[in-house]
Amino acid sequence: MQSRLTLAVLVLVTALAGCESAHIGPSTAQRVNRDTEARLAVPAAPVVGPTDYRIGSPDVLEVEVFGVNELNRTVRVSAAGDFTLPLIGKVSAAGKTVAELQQDIATQMQDRFIENPQVTVYVKEYMSQRVTVEGAVRTPGIYPLTGRTSLLQVMALSGGLDQYANPAGVVVYRKIDDQRHAAVFDIRKIRSGVISDPEVFGSDLIVVDYSGVRSMLRDIITASPIAYFIKVL
Predict the structure, then answer these.
(1) What's the CATH code, domain 26-43+129-224?
(2) What is the pTM assigned to this prediction?
(3) What was the pLDDT predicted at 22?
(4) Closest by alpha carbon to 91, among 65, 69, 66?
(5) Which terminus of the chain has a lower count of CB atoms within 10 Å, N or C?
(6) CATH among 2.130.10.10, 3.40.50.1820, 3.30.1950.10, 1.10.10.10 for 54-125
(7) pLDDT per residue over 121-158, tens digit each?
């Protein structure tokens, strides 16, 4: 009986390998055009660095005024791009850097009879610039970008490729001028320096494709009682 089950496993794996070689059911990566080095256009307002980060909705900010603790606040930037502080009321924040916002708040407070206010603004939660990672990674999710961030860095944030990943099938989707674009990257070539490590921007979607035989075998094992017995042998 055991020899028959072993033979069944070999037949199943051989059949799956044959399916992959025939390219049945094209993968995500196969549906996107490939180049020697895949490239995507840069969005109109990219993240260019931590000090040049442009605040937006719904970022969470911490505002501190040295020596005036009652004015310290944790605020969330509204959909309209502003928030409210004591004494000065509504403050416009969207599109400003941290340095610009600090100066703006200090100027308005000084106009309200606070002498030489020392204002510090921290971005507590970067919510307006986020990238989504899906597919064959250890920790899929939505991750904030705090400055210039490369594809390899985003892969590290998501825990790296899982055991079923196709390293040559990392697809970056990006919206440019209201149109969706995509490019496929081979993580192995990036790591080895054969191609450059592309920059990732807010609102990008990264999908890591699954390796054919391994992902197909895993799906069959999950769905079929017979495959379950094959799995535990």
Answers:
(1) 3.10.560.10
(2) 0.58
(3) 34
(4) 65
(5) N
(6) 3.30.1950.10
(7) 999 888 778 899 999 999 999 998 877 889 999 999 99
